């Protein structure tokens, strides 16, 4: 759907030097590849006012997802409509700036839960996938939530130990085995801490469970989860 090239990302590639050159190349990239809205595809904006209104009008679910060993998981909306489009664009279409309105929505939903959280940890991508995509969408969301909530964001607390196969095509039962023991956490960073795990979509919850198990094994006191959308709500 989208083929936008975010100029801000290009500009961040070489910080500090050649600012006029970077601005000129950013302008040229915008001219050649005008940004498209991640929600509706409209040209000239990566997130248009109409989609922002739709996002703000999307009601927050009232209930939490029970998913041990996590204390609870909150998702800001069912996985459909404009919010689904924006999550897909963030994940697959390089629409990094959409992490800002989506992360802001997550922070708003988090504030309503009255959870006591010590630190925010995004679900890590395997380094191979990170190299392919160039960024971890959950980390971009985590950064925004942490900023809005004035909480520490600690991606280094949790590592993905081995590559898991693409989860799009496997069944729920296979998925559980697929991610088991795929993660490890750093005891010095998580010991006795209450951790909020951040991911983009809650599907079966297998990935969040595996992350939570790793964090608890490393001494975390409790683990909560927060996602933009959930397949089942
Ligand atoms: Zn739009």
Any descriptors?
6 strands, 10 helices, 43% helix, 4-stranded parallel beta sheet, 233 residues, Rossmann fold, alpha/beta
Kindly describe this structure.
The chain has 233 residues and is α/β, with parallel strands linked by helices. The chain has 10 helices and 6 strands, in the order H-H-H-E-H-H-E-H-H-E-H-E-H-E-H-E. It has a 4-stranded parallel beta sheet with strand order 1-6-5-2. The chain has a two-stranded antiparallel sheet with strand order 3-4. Helix 5 crosses helix 7. The protein is globular. The site of zinc ion has 7 residues, from helix 3.
The Rg value, from CA coordinates, equals 18 Å
Q: What percent of residues are in strands? A: 5-15%
Given this structure, which CATH class is correct?
A: Alpha Beta
- Enumerate the strands of the largest sheet in spatial order, edge to edge or round the barrel: 1-6-5-2
Q: Rough shape?
A: globular
Number of strands: 6
Q: Calculate the mean pLDDT score and round it.
A: 86
Element-level helix/strand string: HHHEHHEHHEHEHEHE
When the domains are counted, the total is: 1
Itemize the secondary structure elements and their pairings:
Layout: H1 7-12, H2 19-32, H3 49-57, E1 73-78, H4 81-92, H5 99-113, E2 119-122, H6 127-133, H7 137-149, E3 158-160, H8 172-179, E4 183-185, H9 187-190, E5 194-202, H10 206-217, E6 222-230
Helix pairs in contact: 5-7
The structure holds zinc ion.
Could you give a quick summary of the protein structure above?
With 233 residues, the protein is α/β, with parallel strands linked by helices. Helices cover 43% and strands 15% of the residues. α5 (99-113) crosses α7.
């Amino acid at each position: 759907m989208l083929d936008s090239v975010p100029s801000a990302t290009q500009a961040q590639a070489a910080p500090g030097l050649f600012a006029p050159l970077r601005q000129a190349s950013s302008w040229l990239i915008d001219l050649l590849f005008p940004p498209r809205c991640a929600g509706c595809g409209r040209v000239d904006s990566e997130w248009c006012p109409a989609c922002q209104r739709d996002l703000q009008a999307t009601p927050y679910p009232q209930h939490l997802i029970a998913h041990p060993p996590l204390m609870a998981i909150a998702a800001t909306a069912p996985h459909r409509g404009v919010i689904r489009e924006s999550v897909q664009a963030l994940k697959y279409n390089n629409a990094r700036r959409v992490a800002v309105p989506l992360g802001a929505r997550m922070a708003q939903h988090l504030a309503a839960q009255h959870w006591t959280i010590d630190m925010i940890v995004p679900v890590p991508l395997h380094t191979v996938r990170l190299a392919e995509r160039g960024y971890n969408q959950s980390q971009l969301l985590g950064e925004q939530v942490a900023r809005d909530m004035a909480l520490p964001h600690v991606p280094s607390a949790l590592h993905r130990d081995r590559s898991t196969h693409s989860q799009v095509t496997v069944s729920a039962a296979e998925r559980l085995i697929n991610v088991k023991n795929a993660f490890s956490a750093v005891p010095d960073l998580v010991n006795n801490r209450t951790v909020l795990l951040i991911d983009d979509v809650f599907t079966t919850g297998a990935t969040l469970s595996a992350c939570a198990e790793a964090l608890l094994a490393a001494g975390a006191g409790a683990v909560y989860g927060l996602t933009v959308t959930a397949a089942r709500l």
